[in-house]
Every structure is written in C-alpha cells, then in structure tokens.
Design a protein that fits this description.
The protein is 21% helix and 33% strand. With 169 residues, it is of the alpha+beta class.
C-alpha cells in the first residue's frame, strides 16, 4: 500500500509539472501556445519539434514558447523524422527473427530532417504554432487562429501531395 502511495504521488507531481509548464504565460516576455502539425505528404511523420519543443500530428501538444511581440527576422528551428515507407510488409510476430529483421529495416529507413524557417508576423492574437510538412522536405509555419482549410488560413497547399520526381534546390 505504501508503494502505491509513492507511485500515485509521483504521477500527480509529474502531471502538475507538465500542466505548470504550459501555464507559464507571460514568463520573461514569452507566452506558451499549442504546437500542431499537418502532414501534406504521403510519407509518415514520426515526430517533430520546434526549437526543442515536441509537437504532434494527432492534435494539439503543449507547448511552444513564442515571444509576446513579434520581431523582424524571427526564426524557428524545425526538426522531424520521416518514414518513407520503403520497408517490406509486416511479417507478424510468430517468427521473432523475421520480426526483428523487419523492425531493423523499418527503423533504419527513417530519415532525420532539420531546417530553419522564418515565423510570419503576428499581433497580440496568435494561437500557438502550426507546422506544415510539404513535399521535398519543405516546411511552412503559421501562428494564426483559423483552422487549416478556412478561407483566411495562409497555407493553401492540399493534403496528400505526391513527391515530385525531382525537388528544386
């Protein structure tokens, strides 16, 4: 019973730390906001980060810190991992050696990417950051509050874009 109490206390404290990380609004001239991702490609995006803050393609993730006031030349470092889906089909779990060989092929095919992008101007109203992953390992970001696909949303590229035979340099 004593052990369960310690585990429960650790979980509660950990949860409070996570929550407090996102509630640090106006901490040293920065405000926390949600971090979202939109994949426009046929590749899988395994994970990504903006200036070291982890993001999600499956909804909002807390948090990315943005300065309260936008400034000219503001940039963000985006890092992400893609799955080009070049591995053979899943062999099942019955034969452990085949499964482990397959798993090694899958993870060995993952590709790491990194780029620095300019953050578009924003005023007081901003809603975190949305990172759009485009073909040819290009990335666009926005801080607008409208949702993707709405008339005023600044990024217009469609979803499920096919990778071109050659990418511009």
């Amino acid at each position: 019973m004593m052990r369960i109490g310690k585990v429960l206390r650790s979980l509660v404290l950990g949860g409070l730390l996570i929550i407090s990380g996102c509630s640090q609004a106006n901490s040293d001239g920065y405000t926390a906001g949600d971090l979202r991702g939109v994949n426009h490609t046929e590749q899988g995006i395994n994970h990504f980060s903006v200036n070291g803050y982890g993001g999600s393609l499956s909804g909002n993730t807390c948090c990315v810190m943005l300065p309260n006031k936008w400034y000219q030349g503001m940039q963000a470092k985006i890092e992400w991992e893609t799955d080009p889906k070049t591995a053979p089909p899943f062999p099942g779990y019955q034969d452990r050696d085949k499964y482990e060989a397959w798993e090694k092929q899958v993870t060995g095919s993952f590709q790491q990417h990194s780029t620095v992008v300019v953050i578009p101007a924003y005023d007081k109203e901003r809603c975190g950051m949305t990172v759009h992953f485009l073909t040819c390992n290009r990335v666009k970001v926005t801080t607008v509050c409208e949702g993707f696909g709405t008339p005023n949303y600044p990024i217009k590229e469609p979803l499920h874009m096919k990778e071109p035979a050659t990418c511009p340099k």
